[in-house]
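Study this:
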Amino acid sequence: MKNYSVLAAFLGGALIGAASGLLFAPEKGVDTRSRIAEALRKRGIKLSTADLDSLADDIAEELDDK
């Protein structure tokens, strides 16, 4: 069970790192958010525009707090 926790923590960190890297890339925010939405849709996760904006804001807040 501990192995699953370590794996989940690693994958969660990798996902947050990748998302924050995309959000801070020198690209228009609209383009970046559409790329994130497309990547999530390919994995079967469907988010509305408002949900995607909320997710991006949450990630930005987490990064600002550190």
Summary: Residues 31 and 37 are 10 Å apart (CA to CA). The chain has a mean pLDDT of 77. The helical segments are 2-23, 29-42, 49-65. Residues 2-65 form one domain.
